[in-house]
């Protein structure tokens, strides 16, 4: 079940929005749709969030539904767990993914496990939204990509959109699902990513990737903030006569193995791109499954382009991030193997 | 009458069973006998489970002997099945007094098919939706922020429920405890925090735990009242907790109640020789003399309605029978199949877990190829 590009599932007006506008719109529509939905976190009320993801929501729905909290990630996540257990549908914002540490125990000990440990008697369907990734001169406390920590914890779903259409659809799917979802927002795409977004209601299924570009020579796989550079690399390769297929995972847990394996079995080559540090990077699991399932059909080793195993730097963030040249070079290496 | 921030624990009945202030009218001999029965039932449950542990039929147990007045008294102060409880891992006397069945608690301790939690956690971490008694987590103080959130939801929904959150003295050192207390205070959430201060976090004494003189004074920092109660005086526990719970229910915001009590037994089977290792026999004896069950017996004597020894012996036997029957009933349901390991991770079973389940099925039936799904 794959579309070359996700098609709007809803009739109605389609506008060009930025990624962050799509996120705001998703929350607005969900707040309007379901009384049980609330939005909270540090500075999300009158201020509208430090990136303005929640701008206007408190004005529209009141302090009852959209409210500021004490400066405590443990409280924010923990409160979301308790609210969800009591029947609400909380959307909690953690101001930066780098600050998930104090809320980590709440995420892995409570949110991820309450359904399992209670034998399904108590559940915690909730969404934790948080801006992640680099490229905004944030230094190592405003740039990290901690998704692998959460992908490693059974009981959590982990998603990261790269387009406005997916941002809205995935967020709405996360709010309506039965599970805790960690929803990473690639902050450098907040305003850089623009695209068509239907005004109406639709969801993007969690666990489904998308083919962004079709090709037969190799498969480029990424998610989140690196996607524009992945597509630029594919364009550069196309100018050299190489047709790369580009897949946007969109969801890490669960991830669309079927889509990935279908593509790599066709192309015989895979290059995996993320900006998180290389060691124990989530893409290691993707590479593992590719080689396990398609070993005989691979024409080259599975390549990984990732962040370096250093804390995220400040001055050097342009060289830290895998840009189109580094991605294209890995592709050439695979093609020449 | 019931003041917050007292320097000494609030008490109604002295250690030798004398009312030291007027006994509230509701504490009739009938009620006191009922409370006595519930405390004895919890005490005997403790003994039986320690026996099961020694027999190897369960693998972990955390005794609450000596803490029965605090837990049974708390149960009496709630609207059971209406209010919500986020308990900690020593709360079986609370669970029993709230009406969680002996079978349900025993089943969880044995991990049988009759376990409501489906064999997913180490023993003594039960949970029961019928009583809104949320499944217990081992992770110390991690129930505190969710309890605050549960209470925030109750306020948001406009229901007249409250949330109760229990914890030991050690939990008050965790960051999550402070975060949750602060959150509840800032939100004005109807949350009743109850510290079952038994003075020992495994082998670490309260004096090493904090420089605060008491636990309840910490409430001041979070803008809520803190109450200090003799946790071995069930009359005091019920009087204070009922009063505070209704204040919380009526929109006064959260409150903290510290029940000063003592864990007569070890922390768990992991430190079975508590006296040899970290505390003195003298200290234990001193607290044995403050036994909450004996105190009620003495109070009943004082009121001219003594319980005779035969009655207590019969109560003890009845509880032992009840546990034995629960053990047999639980064991009769068998151990859960391996398949349920893959359920309840998510609302629906995702593809990768289906594949891992299929691999395990093949391995179990001897048809597996290789070592991974």
UniProtKB/TrEMBL annotation, chain A:
<feature type="domain" description="Transketolase-like pyrimidine-binding">
    <location>
        <begin position="17"/>
        <end position="192"/>
    </location>
</feature>
<comment type="subunit">
    <text>Heterotetramer of two alpha and two beta chains. Directly associated with ODBA in the E1 complex.</text>
</comment>
<keyword id="KW-0560">Oxidoreductase</keyword>
<dbReference type="InterPro" id="IPR029061">
    <property type="entry name" value="THDP-binding"/>
</dbReference>
<protein>
    <recommendedName>
        <fullName>3-methyl-2-oxobutanoate dehydrogenase (2-methylpropanoyl-transferring)</fullName>
        <ecNumber>1.2.4.4</ecNumber>
    </recommendedName>
</protein>
<dbReference type="Pfam" id="PF02779">
    <property type="entry name" value="Transket_pyr"/>
</dbReference>
<dbReference type="InterPro" id="IPR005475">
    <property type="entry name" value="Transketolase-like_Pyr-bd"/>
</dbReference>
<dbReference type="Pfam" id="PF02780">
    <property type="entry name" value="Transketolase_C"/>
</dbReference>
<dbReference type="GO" id="GO:0007584">
    <property type="term" value="P:response to nutrient"/>
</dbReference>
<dbReference type="InterPro" id="IPR009014">
    <property type="entry name" value="Transketo_C/PFOR_II"/>
</dbReference>
<dbReference type="GO" id="GO:0003863">
    <property type="term" value="F:branched-chain 2-oxo acid dehydrogenase activity"/>
</dbReference>
<dbReference type="InterPro" id="IPR033248">
    <property type="entry name" value="Transketolase_C"/>
</dbReference>
<dbReference type="GO" id="GO:0009083">
    <property type="term" value="P:branched-chain amino acid catabolic process"/>
</dbReference>
TrEMBL record, chain B:
<dbReference type="InterPro" id="IPR001017">
    <property type="entry name" value="DH_E1"/>
</dbReference>
<comment type="similarity">
    <text>Belongs to the BCKDHA family.</text>
</comment>
<protein>
    <recommendedName>
        <fullName>2-oxoisovalerate dehydrogenase subunit alpha</fullName>
        <ecNumber>1.2.4.4</ecNumber>
    </recommendedName>
</protein>
<dbReference type="GO" id="GO:0003863">
    <property type="term" value="F:branched-chain 2-oxo acid dehydrogenase activity"/>
</dbReference>
<comment type="function">
    <text>The branched-chain alpha-keto dehydrogenase complex catalyzes the overall conversion of alpha-keto acids to acyl-CoA and CO(2). It contains multiple copies of three enzymatic components: branched-chain alpha-keto acid decarboxylase (E1), lipoamide acyltransferase (E2) and lipoamide dehydrogenase (E3).</text>
</comment>
<dbReference type="Pfam" id="PF00676">
    <property type="entry name" value="E1_dh"/>
</dbReference>
<keyword id="KW-0560">Oxidoreductase</keyword>
<feature type="domain" description="Dehydrogenase E1 component">
    <location>
        <begin position="38"/>
        <end position="337"/>
    </location>
</feature>
<dbReference type="GO" id="GO:0009083">
    <property type="term" value="P:branched-chain amino acid catabolic process"/>
</dbReference>
<keyword id="KW-0786">Thiamine pyrophosphate</keyword>
<dbReference type="InterPro" id="IPR050771">
    <property type="entry name" value="Alpha-ketoacid_DH_E1_comp"/>
</dbReference>
<dbReference type="InterPro" id="IPR029061">
    <property type="entry name" value="THDP-binding"/>
</dbReference>
